Amino acid sequence: MFPDTRVSIVEGLTSTDSALRARAVDLVVRAYRGPVIAVLRRQWSLDLPDAEDLAHDFLAHALERDWLARYDAAKGRFRTFLRACLHAYASTANEAAHRLKRGGHLTAVPLEEAPALAVDSDVDRLFEREWVRSVMTLSLDRLRDECRAVGRDVTFDVFVAHDVEGADAETPPRYADVAARFGLPVTQVANYLHWARGRFRGHVLDTLRSLTASDAEFRDEARALLGRNA
Question: 42: which residues sit within 8 A by CB, 6+ positions away?
């Protein structure tokens, strides 16, 4: 996503370098579209098409008007700030929809003046869970691209079969099962998984670096996601 040089998500979004800014925008959309849709469906009881439309509108509005560039690292995590922006935007949109149904006049409400409603802790947990899912998906995509680039497609397939698909299975596959599926020695499966797990962990850390706005936030997110030894 970003080059090796450390660039915070906010620096990327406000950069004068159009290519860097475009990558930052793409990253925000890929990382947060799923969590935003999940919250809209749960908290405002929207069906999937309406949630997808409102998620698109929110992200486009937030990026076009540089809402996310107002983030202050001293006040918490970037994803917490984005979640607050979403709450304000969706609350205003919801009130506007009710106003229109009552025949009232639609009045635009600035982000700073949007009504603050009580946030269900379950919704916050849902947002965090879907955000973690996005981080893992982005990291898995990066691992897949790396494996393809270095000719390790089978390594990736073994990793997915055992650690991704297998994690959701009622009975996790044994190394011997995976070895039989791919026609490999069991020792080779073990070697592939050892390499892929290390690289996947690295990609998770790289993804977190791309999505955080400071070194302190990155360390906090890494510890929360990967444990104390991250």
Answer: 120, 122, 123, 126
Give me the chain's average pLDDT, please.
87
32 touches 131 (CB < 8 A): yes
In the predicted structure, residue 190 carries a pLDDT above the cut 80 = yes
Tracing tokens 């983030």 back to the chain, one arrives at 71
The answer to whether the beta carbons of residues 190 and 175 sit under 8 Å apart is yes
Q: Confidence band (pLDDT; 50, 70, 90) for 221?
A: very high
Residue 117 is predicted with a pLDDT of 43
By C-alpha distance, which of 167, 190, 168, 169 is closest to 178?
Answer: 190
- What would the two tokens of residue 222 be? 């890494």
Closest by Cα among 54, 57, 83 to 71:
83
Is residue 176 packed enough to be buried (19+ CB in 10 Å), middle (13-18) or exposed (0-12)?
A: exposed
**Which SS3 state, helix, strand or coil, does residue 140 take?**
helix
- pLDDT over 70 (residue 102): no
Closest CA to 222 of 211, 212, 230: 230
